[in-house]
Amino acid sequence: MSIAAQIDDLSFTHPGTDLPALERVSLTIPAGESVALLGPSGAGKTTLLALLDGRLRGWSGRVSVLGAPLDPDQPPPRVRRPDSGFVFQEFALVERSTVLRNVLNGRLGRMPPLRALLGSPTAHDLEIARAALADCGIGDLAGRRVDSLSGGQRQRVAIARCLAQEPRLILADEPVSSLDPARAGEILSLLTGAARARGATALFSSHQPDLARRFAQRIIGIRGGRIVFDVPTPELNEAATADLYRETEPMPGTGLRAVS
Ligand SMILES: Nc1ncnc2c1ncn2[C@@H]1O[C@H](COP(=O)(O)OP(=O)(O)OP(=O)(O)O)[C@@H](O)[C@H]1O
C-alpha cells in the first residue's frame, strides 16, 4: 500500500495556549483515497490539515507527507510544496483579479523562482490552468473578476487553482461549510472526483457526517485533539458519530462544560 501521509505520536500546542490542539495522534492515510475528517468545533481538524500542509512549527512526533518527512522546525523545501494543495473554507482568492489569474496562481510553485516572481506563465501553465477550469465546470468564467461570483463558483475557482498546482495530496478545510446543501454536494463530488481522476489523495474536514459518508472512503473522527475513530466509511455507525458530537455535561454551578 502506498501512503500519502504517515503520522506517529503527533502532538502540538498553539503558541500562547496551554492545551494541546493535537495530542498523540497516529494515522496512516493511504494514497489515492478520499478521507473525511469529522469532529466538533475546536477538535483540531484545521490544525491537523495546516500541519500536514507544512505550515506549523514546533510540534512533536513524526510526520511524513508523500514519502518525505516533515521537519517540525523548518518549512518544507520549495520543490516539495506544490505536491500538496490546500482548499480553504473561505476560498482565499484574489477578489479583484480574474478567475484565470487566480487559477494561474496555483502554478506559481511549479515555476522557476524568477518566472514566479514576474508572474509570467508559459503556454504549458496556461494549458493546465484552462484544463483545471474546464474540469471544474467554469471554463466560461475565465475572464470574470472573482468578486462578481457566487460562493459555489468561488469554491470551484479555489479547487481549480488547487488542481492547477498538480498536487498529489489535496487538503481541504471545511470546503463546503458556507454553501447550501445542493452546492455542497456538487463541490465535494467535484473535489473527490478530480482527486480520484488524478490518482491524488483527498483529505477534507467537515461538520456534516452525511456528506462525509457520501464522498469519503474512510472517515476519521477527532475530538479534543485526539483520534477517536478511523474506519472505512461502511463501518461507521450512528452511535460513533453521535458520540463524536455529544455535548458534555455542564459542570455543576459553573455553566461551563467539562472537557473530555
Ligand atoms: N492560531 C491559533 N492560536 C491559538 N489557538 C488556536 C489557533 N488555532 C486553533 N487554536 C486552538 O486549537 C484548538 C483546535 O482548533 P482547530 O481550529 O484546529 O479546530 P477545528 O476542529 O478545525 O474547529 P472548527 O471546526 O471550529 O474549525 C482549539 O482549541 C483552538 O482554539
Automatic annotation (TrEMBL):
Keywords: ATP-binding, Nucleotide-binding
Domain ABC transporter, residue spans: 5-249
Top-level taxon: Bacteria
Record's GO cellular component terms: plasma membrane
InterPro entries, per database record: AAA+_ATPase, ABC_transporter-like_ATP-bd, ABC_transporter-like_CS, ABC_transpr_LolD-like, P-loop_NTPase
GO MF terms, alphabetically ordered: ATP binding; ATP hydrolysis activity; transmembrane transporter activity
PANTHER family associated with the record: IMPORT ATP-BINDING PROTEIN, TRANSPORTER, PUTATIVE-RELATED
Name listed for the protein in its UniProt record: Phosphate ABC transporter ATPase
Organism expressing this protein natively: Pseudosulfitobacter pseudonitzschiae
